[in-house]
Amino acid sequence: MSDHAVPSPTDTDAALLSEARALDAADPLHAHLDAFLEAPGVQAYLDGNSLGRPLAVVPERLAAFVREDWGTRLIRSWDEQWMDLPERLGDRIAEVTLGAAPGQTIVADSTSVLLYKLIRAGAAAAGAPAGPDGARTEIVIEEGNFPTDRFIAAGVAAELGMDLVWVQPDPVRGVTVDDLVPVLSARTALVVLSHVDYRSGALADMAAITAQVHDAGALVLWDLCHSAGSVPMQLDAWGADLAVGCTYKYLNGGPGSPAFAYVRRDLQAQIRQPIQGWWSAADIFAMGPRYAPTPGIRQLLSGTPPVTSMLAMQAMLDLIAEAGMAAVRAKSVSLTDFAVRAADEVLAPLGVRLLSPRDSALRGGHITIGHPEFQAVTQRLWGEGVIPDFRFPDGIRLGLSPLSTSHEETLRGVVAVRDALALGGR
Amino acid sequence: MSDHAVPSPTDTDAALLSEARALDAADPLHAHLDAFLEAPGVQAYLDGNSLGRPLAVVPERLAAFVREDWGTRLIRSWDEQWMDLPERLGDRIAEVTLGAAPGQTIVADSTSVLLYKLIRAGAAAAGAPAGPDGARTEIVIEEGNFPTDRFIAAGVAAELGMDLVWVQPDPVRGVTVDDLVPVLSARTALVVLSHVDYRSGALADMAAITAQVHDAGALVLWDLCHSAGSVPMQLDAWGADLAVGCTYKYLNGGPGSPAFAYVRRDLQAQIRQPIQGWWSAADIFAMGPRYAPTPGIRQLLSGTPPVTSMLAMQAMLDLIAEAGMAAVRAKSVSLTDFAVRAADEVLAPLGVRLLSPRDSALRGGHITIGHPEFQAVTQRLWGEGVIPDFRFPDGIRLGLSPLSTSHEETLRGVVAVRDALALGGR
């Protein structure tokens, strides 16, 4: 009868529900929940960091785009508005979320393709591929970094005859300056790190680590997939060299919307990306015999920009701008703090572990909790309209997109995990 | 008074108009024109080979996708329908337009990025980069090929330490077996050619040229951008090795919709593409320490597939399937034949030259005409809702997308060119 050791769900639930409702009532961004499309049958959407929800205006905006910009203006829209959309949208992302001046950010391709371009370009610019002794021949990457970052860095290292060097931070605390001390050296060309860890949610100190990498004479590439639109940044002030980020998470661009890349202005003349398609050429319509890259951030383009996939995020950027990143972050902290408290009270007694930092200053917009039964639990929850994310081998990730998630919704999710665990265990 | 040498516009116009109307009345695909969205103010859209028109169902399909698949099913749609969309849509393109069996075609990225992947992979598979004497170290490309093909081939050749060798065909007739004789050798690794030339519309003999390249022991990559959805193909029967094509032209996928790639089944185990992102991994969600590519065509993926940009083309593929590629080609030939006759009668007297093959068997779905004033003429026409494409330095390209263009519309375009030229010359 060890079940009796578990606190009574009803009392705990009621107290947490009161707390959630009080937090929602005091939330200055609560009204923004109405900006998102309703999702019939969804009790709790806790995966906004895998796929952000569409804003309510998006269906008609896409339809109007097809009728007017594409269907009526037709090819003329390239001249009228699409040609510079990759830069305009990049500048908008930079202004609203990155703390970066114009002319350094561009929207294109996927995160993986942009990582390839910038890891290649950055490693080649900073290092001397297959060079003599003393050359910078190492790409440093965290062993817990997102797979595509690691896979692509490994591929580039092999291509350029460079070595991959692994950083091994604490998986919950995430990468720190101390972790980099043993690996940085005069051989380091490029360091590839995530601003927010995709599993633990650990938030790296971008300013301190960037300064440390620069002291070693190397460049750093930041993966912003799990921070863009959730954690305020000052890329320019912090001296970031290169960055790549995702627009379908906290920027709500829709499934497979293109990625963005940032290259610090004074590095732009030193890099050369490998996929030299016509959109990166100095004169795109000259169609001359030889390739010459255009100067500036536009050199990162390759093929025709994916216009249709660049539309939905624009409404979200407007909403974030209206709220302000400081307020977005404050709500994000409130949501994850509350999720940690609720998990402590409701889930810890069932053996669920917190796999994220307890200190909100060390955390991004999601938390991860662990239990051996979470794969089966996630499957059951999805069928019931409670939608967290499962991360192999035993993690449930609660991605609490600040503008589209309430405290009460967060609690519904945590309670549903408890109920599913209880069912699963018997 | 040399103007009097020009045939009276009125009589010629009237005769051609009768002919156009008779051809439209006899056109078995004429009713399909109604499947496309109306474009208010557009008199003649003659640029379907730069950006195909949206089908009338597309605005609501995109809106419903946002409301339901994205907005309500949310992240669950990846499991339910999006995960294998790149292959399913690739197979559909293969079945409807390419004459290729399933499992060899995938939708991803842009044409430029897929060209990079396949030129890299094909050159490396066929050649021996920077190898000893006797190795295959040459990439052969046509000097008039589309810029992105040439630029990317040049970049890959430099990366791999290979040489770029130029084919120099007649610019109107396009590349033939005879043109390749002097350049193919035991040093040839990969040949990169367009099926339909982006300027002249010249149609290459894919079967004969592929056999010739194979006789030389090399591989061939076909750029299908200007033929997919317009010219019937039998990629499997013709023995094509690699191919890349565009979906925003005759497949009406919308601005910047992703490209497709074809890799012959028995080559798939021999190639390795360079951008080894997580979507190309053997087990995408294992997120293990080391990269291992998945077998089959899915190895060409890198990042998250651009789902939103993959929707519009599906309606067009259904329409092409309903019409059948043979009927689409028959109408395409009728349209370009009529455009050539109209240009001969209406424009040749003003000094306009035909820059495309006269024999329809040697031509794809567009023709190009030349005159020194065409840049200014195009600008004027666009303002009037007559929309051809200008190609530097003096070409107007008439892209006659078979399912969305009528003979009468084609004639309106040709007559408008004449009228604009007449105005411009005075």
Automatic annotation (TrEMBL), chains A, B:
One annotated Gene Ontology cellular component of this protein: cytoplasm
Highest taxon above the source species: Bacteria
UniProt keywords, alphabetically: Hydrolase, Pyridine nucleotide biosynthesis, Pyridoxal phosphate
Cofactor: pyridoxal 5'-phosphate
Function per UniProt: Catalyzes the cleavage of L-kynurenine (L-Kyn) and L-3-hydroxykynurenine (L-3OHKyn) into anthranilic acid (AA) and 3-hydroxyanthranilic acid (3-OHAA), respectively.
PANTHER family: KYNURENINASE (PTHR14084)
Family: Belongs to the kynureninase family.
Protein name, UniProt field: Kynureninase
Organism: Microbacterium azadirachtae
